[in-house]
Amino acid sequence: MNGTLTNMTMHTMTSFSLLAPAKLNLFLHINGRREDGYHELETLFTFLNYGDQLTFTLSETTEIEVTGDTSNIPLKDNLIYKAAVLLQKHTNSLFGAKINLTKILPMGGGVGGGSSDAASTLLALNKLWHCQLSLQELAALGVQLGADVPVFINGKSALAQGIGEKLVNVELPSKWYCVVHPSEHVSTAKIFTHPDLKRNTPKLKGPWQQQTLANDCEPLVKKLCPEVEKTLQWLLKYAPSKMTGTGSCCFVEFATQKEAQHVLENLPHNWDGFIASSVNISPAHTQLNAIH
Ligand SMILES: C[C@](O)(CO)[C@H](O)COP(=O)(O)OP(=O)(O)OC[C@H]1O[C@@H](n2ccc(N)nc2=O)[C@H](O)[C@@H]1O
Ligand SMILES: Nc1ncnc2c1ncn2[C@@H]1O[C@H](COP(=O)(O)OP(=O)(O)OP(=O)(O)O)[C@@H](O)[C@H]1O
Predict the structure, then answer these.
(1) For residues 71 and 58, what is the distance between their CA atoms, to the nearest angstrom?
(2) Global pTM value
(3) Where are the domains of the chain?
(4) Domain 176-279 class?
(5) Which residues pair with 45 in a beta bridge?
């Protein structure tokens, strides 16, 4: 019986939920373009205590089933499914899973929802299937799905280099954010292939805390998407406004929940937004560590 599903169910949890948190890029510098088209960048990642909800249930067959808010993404393209299949193949696992998604994060909004879903899937199935891969091994699998997946696997706020996968953990003070999602969608690929993207910011010299920091995608996205320009302008009434990733979400930072809530309450009624606090450890990791 050793190693069988029956044996395992007697000892370990066979169903649990994890958050797939949002990330914000507190700055994003683009240092150059590599031959494969990917960009060398430097960016500061923080996690928010807010995200998609994923429930994982062990199956006795090898089937991977994804249910819930997946309607407009074909199964084969869904990063949750792709992550599960990647891990299953890599580990020759004989198990499968039912995965249910409650989608909270705006898609293509620069808050990394798809990448975070993929990372939480790798972390959860590694536990559910007893694969025992290290975080480093999971991150190496994850980067095949997206440049942002490794930071979610690493699970700590971090300064990233390379294409976003070389990580140095950092401790950031906890803040409250009001994140606004303009209705205009921004394609990450479109921004990274645009001839007008600023790609020549020099690499940081010395600690990032002592430098002028920006999002190099912001001027181009503002030009291409008037809604983003409008959102950044509107938020400026409250605090310095920034864009995350390649957009389109924009945010303002505060010390208190009250200040963030005040901005949300004043949002023009046809705009979407949310507030959340930042955390140094990804909520997915906090939840996973509580499961035995
Ligand atoms: C811009 C960021 O959001 C910052 O956090 C991410 O680096 C993007 O991460 P992601 O969405 O996981 O990116 P991927 O799915 O790997 O790539 C999406 C598109 O962005 C381009 N891309 C992405 C990351 C990077 N460092 N250079 C790039 O040129 C890729 O060529 C691809 O066309
Ligand atoms: N489970 C998923 N959740 C969200 N998007 C997914 C998922 N699976 C595949 N995708 C695809 O990935 C694309 C990018 O999604 P995502 O929400 O991660 O963008 P993003 O927030 O702009 O991320 P980034 O900041 O990493 O560029 C979507 O437009 C969608 O087509």
Answers:
(1) 22
(2) 0.94
(3) 5-170, 176-279
(4) alpha beta
(5) 25, 158
